[in-house]
């Protein structure tokens, strides 16, 4: 069945780049997403990429997609303390806009 | 802006109680979802609904039921709460647009503790 995997923790220094990685199994996924969850809040869509794209850039965020390896990454440039959150990778699977989520990567930004 | 609201941020219930979690969205979305979020497991889909009075089981429906009597409201019901249902519950909604990206919009979550 479908599965999405991500590492659970990442710690970076303020001002450095953060790279959060994700692997997925469903090669028919049409869209892949990155969501952000701040403490005590619901999930907020950060960005998404269509499966026929290799890269998408949006200000400090860069998404890279390697379809051959089923690997997705999110790079945050110039990471700030406000970027500390849990980041979820998700793939669209099946009908009715069902999403399969990874376990989430907790990003800690330290001075 | 899309708004998804959940009736409670925190709930404490006793084992065996019937629990209702309510979710309301104001964007006329057809699809609504209930997830539970547990550390290290991410979000797991409990049930979803693609229209009024329609429902589909997700990945972990056991111990839960849902109700969608009106388009804007999707209720999650724990018929007899158990301690292993202590979790964060997240509601989401989306609008189906064939062939395009469909964002799911999330509520703030309800943290349920079952004693």
Give a structural overview.
The complex is a heterodimer of chains A (about 110) and B (about 120). Chain A is mainly β and about 110 residues long. Chain A is built from no helices and eleven strands. Chain A has strands at about 5, 10-15, 20-25, 30-35, 45-50, 55-60, 60-65, 70-75, 85-90, 100, 105-110. In chain A, strand 7 and strand 8 (about 70-75) form a beta hairpin. Chain A is globular and about 40 Å long. Chain B is built from no helices and eleven strands. In chain B, the strands form two sheets. In chain B, strands 2, 4, 5, 6, 9, 10 and 11 form a seven-stranded mixed beta sheet that branches. A four-stranded antiparallel beta sheet of chain B has the order 1-3-8-7, with no helix packed on it. In chain B, a hairpin with a 2-residue loop joins strand 5 (about 40-50) and strand 6 (about 55). The radius of gyration of chain B is 14 Å and the shape is globular.
- Morphology call of chain A: globular
Largest interface: A-B, 22 and 26 residues
- What does the average pLDDT of chain B come to? 92
Structural class of chain A: mainly beta
Number of helices of chain A: 0
Terminal CA distance of chain B reads 37 Å
Largest sheet of chain A: 6 strands, mixed
Class from secondary-structure proportions of chain B? mainly beta
Question: Low-confidence parts of chain B, pLDDT < 50 over ≥5 residues?
Answer: none
**What form of chain B results from the Cα inertia axes?**
globular
